[in-house]
Write a structure and sequence with these properties.
2 copies of one chain form a homodimer. Chain A is of the alpha/beta class. Chain A has 12 helices and 13 strands.
């Protein structure tokens, strides 16, 4: 890896080696279904390059064909200096709120679309599968199935499962299996808490609700000692862990103050935070530096939300603007992601 | 004001002139009531110096007599270098969830206890009243009453009023009146959103729920342009604005991305944030510096949560450890609070 050239930060990293752990896929079509559940998705073509995603009869999001076309994604990756992109379902496709058998069919279908994209990508894609976590047995079965397929590094799961926070003991059997299988677990905000406190247009759910819910999810992992229970689990949180960075000092002080918290937490919150991975999707230099301070130089990695509108356009430059040191940049742009994903070879 | 002596930061500020805008009062007793509502409070003596606060039949919090004794408070203020302490009701006494007539009686009683403490304090206390915001007319009537009493600088209100966020248009008539009367408005977390996402012992509601709710409250003030609508309103948020610091960069990016947000917000979120006051109650040097960056050198002021267990013990030292410059320290420890409170004379 060469020392970066600050005049042209996008191209500065020697090879096109950035790894983006946070990008989404929407299949270009979904199978029809007799008597589909309310939230069954479909995609209606809008023009040559865009589709309207419907959740049942509700227009959900207008998306570009980069959601399903490998070629579009590879072009964008080349332009942004991203060598490897990790594909995961658009979170609304988690379908935790859907009747289990239908959700299971939908999620398996989406995972098979991810598998096909991985094949098309000629080594430049990996995948994180969806799993129907409203049914732990089925979720574990699907996790086992995808981990035997080429290119799957683990799973993407919601920050809450129908309101159950990620750190809740109910989910321990799933985490035990993920740990056993060596599956990376990427936690993504979905159907967030606090939505009833938002005043303004609909995008505020993504803008403010998502970081709120992922922050509480990361906190729940810590207050229930998830990483002490599953020490080999590789667990990451989207959107830089959201509000967790702002919650941590108060959680640390609470741990020092309340006997009930001191007794229930083994390690201090700050120590535990250093076992969690987060992505870099915070749109801010100072906050990115704060993430590295909190989670450690070896636990922050690129996330972009590609190809949605509300995304990080220049993930490599964002890191290079915040950090001078070549070795640290290398960690943040690819080595940490490789460790999270369990990759042996880094450069595709 | 002398340059501080770093060997003895607590005593370094020339006079005992720190102003603490965030401290709470619990009356030593509450009036009895025929057929009291479910949440009617009482205090049961536990020992010579402590009482058990009950909310109805539910033990709510064990508190020290510093909650109601001026002499205890003045001693603690002297020890911490605090010249002026702003008294406000323990938030559970807001009683927004109580039948209005009973809540109104309770809040007037509590405000009268605050008024009596102000008298006892010989100039070293100011008060922020409670108001029954479940009924805007009664709230405005009580605001008008207390603003005519000696020592009242304004009101303390909840981050949400039975779920209605502070920025909601429903509350505009109240803010219009607060602005007209020159009443400072201190927004304190209460009955927080996200409580259903907490995994662990009860104090997590205070530890994680409070900053989550106050963060969303501050965001709602911005997304509904509260300070553009009421430009002379002096509005502050407890706990350093909670998670707002972590939400702001994403809100700023959302404002740049979504036309719906750009259209509904006049000024950018970052610009609007510089009109809000916050207290310093974040227990962390770096986060305190971040607050000054976000809200401005003239909008951060001391808050301690005195006399509860979970509080800032050394507010002056916290600021002196984070900031070198004498003029800035002076602002953060007292001048900003004086501006927020509308005080003419600063040193008691």
């Amino acid at each position: 890896l060469q020392k970066s050239d600050t005049r042209s930060p996008q191209r500065a990293v020697g090879c096109r080696c950035g790894i983006d752990v946070h990008s989404h896929v929407v299949p270009s079509r979904f199978p029809g279904r007799d008597d589909p559940p309310d939230a069954w998705p479909s995609v209606h073509s809008v023009d040559a390059c865009h589709g309207q995603v419907m959740i049942g009869s509700r227009p959900y999001r207008l998306v570009s064909d980069a959601c399903w076309l490998a070629s579009r994604r590879l072009e964008a990756m080349d332009a942004a200096g991203i060598g490897l992109q990790v594909l995961s379902p658009m979170p609304e496709l988690f379908s935790y709120w859907m009747e289990t058998a239908a959700a299971d069919d939908l999620i398996r279908y989406t995972n098979d679309v991810l598998a096909a994209l991985v094949q098309e990508g000629a080594g430049r894609f990996r995948a994180l599968a969806g799993v129907p976590l409203q049914d732990l047995d089925r979720a574990i079965a699907e996790l086992t199935r995808v981990m035997a397929l080429p290119g799957f590094a683990g799973v993407e799961i919601g920050s809450n499962i129908n309101g159950i926070p990620v750190g809740h003991s109910h989910l321990f059997p799933f985490f035990a299996e993920a740990e056993r299988l060596g599956a990376a677990v990427f936690v993504h905000a979905v159907r967030p808490a606090g939505s009833e406190r938002l005043v303004g247009p609909a995008p505020l759910q993504q803008v403010l609700g998502y970081p709120t819910d992922i922050g509480l999810a990361a906190a729940s992992a810590i207050t229930n000692n998830l990483l002490s229970r599953f020490p080999s689990l590789r667990l990451a949180f989207s959107h830089g862990g959201g509000t967790f960075a702002a919650l941590l000092p108060r959680l640390e002080q609470g741990y020092a103050t309340f006997p009930a918290l001191r007794d229930s937490l083994g390690e201090s919150p700050s120590q535990q935070a250093r076992r969690l991975f987060v992505d870099s999707l915070v749109f801010d230099r100072d906050m990115l530096r704060q993430l590295v301070q909190i989670f450690g130089e070896d636990h922050v990695m690129i996330g972009t939300d590609y190809p949605f509108n509300f995304r990080e356009e220049a993930p490599m430059r964002r890191i290079e603007e915040a950090f001078e040191e070549a070795r640290l940049r290398d960690r943040l742009t690819r080595l940490n992601a490789a460790a999270f994903l369990g990759l042996n070879e880094i450069c595709p």
